[in-house]
């Protein structure tokens, strides 16, 4: 049903940003086949429980990519694929005989998506790393945090998922659109350090113009009293983003502050003292009381909800922002489309759960599947 219906994608199983990209493409209607590893015994490794949300929507075939028959099988699947996703260090797929060159030789229309932290080349290309390292090098970590404190890692949202998996999915779709004109595939080199840097574009401009200075003193990084998180009387929190003058005026009104008593909103020399005043006011009521007073207004207000609370908020319920699949509450597909509605195809699969079924649907005959199984190339 989704806008990518009819596209076939191979996902070489990995962790983090690769599965997220595959999930996003699957949610949009692409048929994604996840190729999982085998244990040395020939049995598919691990179990994928229902709460492994990143694995939703895809079937799984367990293939030994170190076995020559497994390599030959994957190259045959490549012939029928529109795109391939892999997330190994540079050179690993080449050593398996499954790098871009042999894959594009078998299918010149293939979009070959590569997900790494540092990129396919550069001095750090072969170094290990995680989200925190990639966003640190991109300049995305240092600005996040309060004044006088160390930078705060923003979960692994900026590198793994925003700068990584989402950029890879975007790159693959861009390459598929270009293929419609040229008829040719190509390699997409999605590096988390590049993606995180791209997400920081506005802040690089702000820093060079002098608008963005020391961490925790700027408008969007907890420096401003009108853009921050405040504790309430019951130990919970609310968020305020009253940047525009009319929204700031409404904030002051609902806090009971006379604007005539205050300096100009954008006078940074008074932000610290105003923050203390606003913080004291927010601690006089509970989060629910502030919701009654501010939610739905032009203050630019929202309660800070936990992972357990967010799916039950009336706005999220009304929009169906969260769905339940196999007994697990999770975010639904996004974004939304007026005609080609995106849907989750199936719950997360156990590694190798659909090996025979999926290979048959991808054109591998039953006799060959039996031979592959006997040779321990699949499970």
Spell out the key features of this protein.
elongated, alpha/beta, 36% helix, three-stranded antiparallel beta sheet, 11 strands, 14 helices, 14% strand, 379 residues, six-stranded parallel beta sheet
Care to give the gist of this entry?
This protein has helices at residues 17-27, 68-78, 92-95, 100-106, 131-137, 157-182, 192-199, 201-209, 245-255, 271-282, 287-294, 314-319, 355-361, 366-374; strands spanning 8-12, 31-36, 59-62, 83-86, 111-116, 186-191, 227-231, 237-241, 301-303, 322-325, 328-331.
Shape designation: elongated
Radius of gyration from the CA trace?
25 Å
How is the biggest beta sheet arranged? 6 strands, parallel
The SSE string, one letter per element, is EHEEHEHHEHHEHHEEHHHEHEEHH
Which percent band covers the strand fraction?
A: 5-15%
The low-pLDDT segments are none
Q: Tell me the distance between the termini.
A: 30 Å
Structural class: alpha/beta
Q: Quick check: average pLDDT?
A: 96
Number of strands: 11
Strand order of the largest sheet: 3-2-1-4-5-6
Share of residues in helices: 25-40%
- Oligomeric state as shown: single chain
**If helices are DSSP runs of H or I spanning 4 or more residues, what is the number of helices?**
14
Structural description of this entry:
This protein is an alpha/beta fold and about 375 residues long. About 35% of the residues lie in helices and about 15% in strands. It is built from 14 helices and eleven strands. The chain has helices at about 15-25, 70-80, 90-95, 100-105, 130-135, 155-180, 190-200, 200-210, 245-255, 270-280, 285-295, 315-320, 355-360, 365-375, and strands spanning about 10, 30-35, 60, 85, 110-115, 185-190, 225-230, 235-240, 300-305, 320-325, 330. Strands 3-2-1-4-5-6 form a six-stranded parallel sheet, sandwiched between helices. It has a three-stranded antiparallel sheet with strand order 7-8-9, covered by helices on one side. A two-stranded antiparallel ribbon has the order 10-11. Helix 5 (about 130-135) packs across helix 7 (about 190-200). The two termini are about 30 Å apart. The model has no long low-confidence stretch (mean pLDDT about 95).
